[in-house]
Q: What sequence folds into this?
């Protein structure tokens, strides 16, 4: 059975890494059909808007999108196109795995951590942002809800149970932010009590960051609020070699968008040297989401085998390959 997905080729290096990713997906023969739609600067150039209605309709219709990095123009439009997409489709769960791969520049080995980040509220909300007329004071409202906290913590525990993880760490700052982070922690405790088969521990965010650097092997699944999750997930990417190996899934009840979490890297766009691994790993998350778990395993195994063989690795991984030659090497192993 064919599954149609929306494909956003993106800006900067986006089209290059998307072409490479689709080449590998085609080699997997997983029955995907692509509906190419525009967003970001490329959409502005073609359609006069950053998020055309046709793009929104395609995501809504297919319920799944694979997205390359987008550039948000400075001084106009949304504060972030990615934040706007999450808001419009209520993509409340941001899932960021950080897994050690061979032959990278990572300082650690054996890392396997999943950060589950609340994606729609908290410090990234646009409510209450003001700047005083004299430019001397700024403020912003942080809003945390019981509903938002409950569904993200439950998502983390359900994910842990589904994939056989044994521990969830709830990261918070309830010792200082007693209302907002305090509510999140209280709700997390209520949810955790319903999962007696999964160990739950709590960690203040500053200590969690220190512990991730000192002893990352103690972590399994992390669940936290929006701002903390944004910071921690990038920290975890640093443990395994950087954002070039960092995929992300944005999950809601009506749609899901899978992406490389790094930027559009305009400085290397068109040079054919961008590492496609982050988007390929996001595609593996997408296959898991679509129930094609065995195909996702094949894709990840092919990436590992290619890294082990040092076959056509891109320059950031110490090789002399191109974006597409690296993709072809991975495709040959699926």
A:
């Amino acid at each position: 059975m064919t599954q149609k997905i929306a494909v956003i080729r993106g800006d900067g290096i986006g089209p290059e890494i998307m072409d490479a990713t689709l080449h590998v997906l085609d080699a997997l023969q997983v029955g995907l059909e692509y509906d190419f739609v525009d967003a970001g600067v490329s959409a502005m150039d073609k359609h006069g808007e950053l998020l055309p209605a046709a793009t929104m309709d395609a995501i809504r219709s297919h319920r799944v999108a694979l997205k390359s990095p987008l550039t948000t123009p400075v001084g106009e439009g949304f504060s972030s196109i990615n934040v706007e997409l999450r808001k419009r489709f209520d993509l409340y769960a941001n899932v960021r795995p950080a897994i050690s791969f061979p032959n990278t520049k990572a300082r650690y080995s054996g890392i396997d951590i999943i950060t589950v980040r609340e994606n729609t509220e908290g410090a990234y909300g646009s409510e209450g942002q003001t700047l005083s007329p004299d430019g001397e004071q700024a403020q912003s409202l942080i809003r945390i809800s019981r509903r938002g906290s409950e569904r993200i913590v439950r998502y983390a525990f359900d994910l842990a149970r589904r994939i056989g993880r044994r521990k969830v760490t709830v990261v918070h700052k309830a010792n200082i932010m007693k209302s907002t982070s305090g509510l999140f922690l209280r709700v997390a405790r209520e949810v955790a009590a319903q999962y007696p088969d999964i160990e739950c521990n709590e960690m203040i965010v500053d200590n969690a960051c220190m512990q991730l650097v000192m002893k990352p092997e103690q972590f399994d699944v992390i669940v936290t609020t929006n701002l903390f999750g944004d910071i921690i997930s990038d920290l975890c990417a640093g443990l395994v070699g950087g954002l070039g190996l960092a995929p992300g899934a944005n999950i809601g009840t009506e749609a899901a968008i899978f992406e490389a979490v790094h930027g559009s890297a305009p400085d290397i766009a068109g040079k054919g040297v961008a590492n496609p691994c982050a988007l390929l790993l996001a595609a593996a998350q997408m296959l898991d989401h679509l129930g094609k778990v065995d195909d996702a395993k094949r894709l990840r195994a092919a990436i590992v085998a290619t890294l082990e063989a040092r076959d056509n690795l891109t320059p950031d991984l110490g090789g002399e390959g191109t974006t597409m030659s690296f993709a072809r090497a991975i495709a040959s192993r699926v």
Remarks:
- The two ends are 20 Å apart (CA to CA).
- DSSP finds eleven helices and twelve strands in the chain.
